[in-house]
Structure formats: C-alpha cells, structure tokens
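For reproducibility, we list the full input for the NAP complex.
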Amino acid sequence: MNAQHRSRSEFQFQARKVAVVGGTRGIGAAIVSTFVRAGHDVLLTGRTVPDAVVEKFRSEATREGQTVEALALDSAAPDSAERLATAASARIGGLDVLCLNAGVFPNRPLAELTYTDIREVFAVNVESQMLAVAACLPLLRESAAGRVVFTSSITGPVTGFPGWSHYGASKAAQLGFMRTAALELAPHGITVNAVAPGNVATEGLDGMGEDYLAQMTATIPLGRLARPQEIADAVEFLAGERASFITGQVITVDGGQTLPESPEAVLPLPTGSPR
Ligand code: NAP
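The corresponding predicted structure, in tokenized form, follows.
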C-alpha cells in the first residue's frame, strides 16, 4: 500500500508520543522496547533509571529524530502525576498513549499486614495511576486518539493468592477506576483498557524462589510462564489503531491459568480417556 492509499487514521497512529510509567525492567521494559521499535517517541519512568537502560532503548530507535527520554520518579510521591505530565509535554511534546505499568507486590500474610503495607501498595498500584490519568488528561485530549493502558493482574480481579490480599485488592481497585475513566474519557475519543497478565518471567518474580515458580508453572495449561513481550504485545494492540473501538475492557494474557476448575484439569489426559 503506498502513502496515497493510507487512511488518515493510519497516519494518526504513526510516531505517537508514549509514556510508560515503570518502564525500566520486566514487563515495562518490554513495553518500552515495543513502542521504541515501532518508531514512537517514548518517555519512561522508574524510581531509578540507569543510563545503560536508556541507552539500550535509544539503540532500538527506528526513526530519524525519534526521542527516548527517561525520568527518575517515584510514583508514590505526591507530585509524581504533575511531574509526569510536565515531562511528557516538555520532553516528548505531548501524549497519545499513557501506559501505567509500575506496580509493587510485596508478600504479606494477613496476620502480619499493617497500615503501612497497604498504603505502600495502594499508593503505587492505584492512587498514583488515578492521579496520573487526571494530570495527563489535558495532553491526552489534544491527541487525535488518546489511549490509557493499565497493567493489571489476574490476582485480585479474578483469582487470589495467600500473602497478596493487599495487592489483589489494589489490582481490583485499579480496574474499578478503569471502567469509570473509560466512560468519562470516551467523549474525548480516549480509550482506557487493561492487560491482565498471569505469571510472567520478570525480575520482579525472581525473589519468589524456585518452588513458587515451579508451582505456578504447573498450574498454567500452556506449561510455562509468560514472556514480558507477550504482555507488551497486548498493550501495543490496545494502544493501536486496531483497538479503536475497545474501551473499558481487560485482556487476560495468562496461558489459560484462570481456566482450570480444579488441579486435575491441567494434568495429562489418562490413556484411553474419552476426552
Ligand atoms: P518489576 O520487574 O518489579 O518491574 C516494575 C517496574 O515498575 C520497574 O520498572 C520499576 O522500576 C517500576 N516501579 C516500581 N515501583 C515504582 C515506583 N514506586 N515508582 C516508579 N516506578 C516504579 O515488575 P513486573 O513483574 O514487570 O510487573 C510490572 C507490572 O505487571 C506490575 O504492575 C505488576 O503488578 C504487573 N504484573 C506482573 C506479573 C508478573 O508475573 N511479573 C503478573 C501480573 C501482573 P524501579 O524499581 O526503578 O522503580
């Protein structure tokens, strides 16, 4: 297809301005790489953003004049949303896509759960994201096709796991916010969606130990954890032109993890089974 035959909307989805909150490693790094390789201008954040990480993303740029910018920013800080919006405006020239990926998931059994634990998880996983959407709204409204994409989880909205009650509650709250934000922003042509990963092989899971990872893998019908890129692909889809009529929705990317009604459902079929 030559340029003359491309629709106006196709051009609207080229060289977009993308912010990825929590983009230094894990799923967020895959999201950043995906948008950089697609030729978009990207602003990424993390509490610490090593120069080597930014240089690696810059080396993946595919377009002349493409910008990859980084901002060291603790999402839990009271002024983080304003600083994010200001940086998006000043450093990448606006905002078409806001990816809210930063999340913390400390294990804390209910018997040990404190006020501080809950505050820490909700500050990053929920409150900072609500405030980021609000602060970035003037920029997103200027976009021809604004997009907000949350990284949610199956834990909370669909499943539970001992030790992560506060985390699960935060991810359920995040989706509650997403649905009303989708309604409020629809008149501005802005879509708001989420991707809900199952277990993903990231640095964030490294500390959980081999037993936990083996236990998780055994419950996943596709027989492995997700790769970060598989989550990023769903984020890219929701941010792109082909998702233009999808809003307020969750795409679960879990290898079938939420499907089995009992552990037997993921065991090999017995020989001669009628199934
Ligand atoms: P990760 O490897 O720990 O990376 C988290 C990213 O968020 C890093 O870039 C980190 O950078 C940033 N971040 C964390 N706290 C932050 C804060 N206070 N302010 C700014 N940035 C912050 O985590 P992940 O496994 O990729 O998870 C990413 C998202 O996916 C989270 O929302 C998580 O809940 C969700 N998720 C993960 C899995 C999984 O299996 N991994 C499953 C379901 C959902 P800094 O450390 O530099 O701040």
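The CA atoms of residues 22 and 102 lie 4 Å apart. The longest helix spans residues 115-142. Both points were considered when choosing residues for closer inspection.
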